[in-house]
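Design job #97: recover the sequence.
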């Protein structure tokens, strides 16, 4: 009997590293998703709470400055990583998620903590606005990527934003979940990420 309970619990963990997934991409369709007017920012587990945020022109110009002089696709991915981290640093205090702890898993501790679904949604919206603003020359925003047992890979469920390289259609994920708010953002080959990739020193799954 105990063994059966352990198997059931292991199965539950395999299915739920983050909170119950909402429709992650819905935030990309709400508000104006214009940084100077209004855009949707999730500030709770599973995007259960959404904040209509506005950046000042100076704040959005700061994001745009990361992309001045982009040389090629690889260079743009490096700039995306830096720009997304800075985006979180600006957005966190506005939304009350500045103390979000990296790697928050399946149990909601409250208090502005974000799970991977909220992180994936926020990063997707940020990338969407960067694309609309003309900052991205070598990539376009793609659908959120999932990994874990229900999605054909080993391990716990995890979600993140995705970009597609225009020249060859190659997919790259943009993941902000592993460290605290505004910490390092990682742009990783999608296949490598789906195999269970995580950064040294970052939260494990």
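Job complete. Output follows.
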């Amino acid at each position: 009997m105990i063994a059966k309970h352990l198997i059931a619990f292991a199965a539950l963990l395999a299915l739920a590293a983050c909170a119950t997934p909402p429709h992650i991409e819905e935030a990309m369709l709400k508000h104006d998703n214009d940084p100077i007017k209004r855009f949707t920012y999730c500030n709770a587990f599973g995007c259960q709470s959404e904040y209509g945020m506005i950046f000042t022109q100076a704040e959005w110009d700061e994001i745009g400055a990361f992309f001045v002089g982009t040389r090629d696709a690889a260079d743009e991915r490096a700039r995306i990583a830096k720009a997304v981290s800075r985006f979180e640093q600006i957005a966190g205090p506005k939304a009350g998620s500045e103390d979000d702890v990296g790697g928050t898993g399946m149990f909601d501790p409250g208090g502005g903590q974000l799970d991977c679904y909220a992180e994936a949604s926020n990063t997707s919206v940020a990338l969407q606005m960067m694309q609309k603003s003309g900052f991205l020359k070598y990539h376009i925003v793609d659908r959120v990527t999932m990994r874990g047992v229900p999605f054909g890979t080993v391990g716990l469920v995890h979600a993140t934003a995705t970009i597609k390289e225009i020249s060859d259609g190659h997919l790259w994920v943009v993941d902000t979940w592993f460290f605290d708010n505004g910490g390092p953002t990682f742009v990783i080959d999608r296949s490598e990420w789906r195999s269970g990739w995580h950064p040294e020193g970052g939260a494990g799954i």
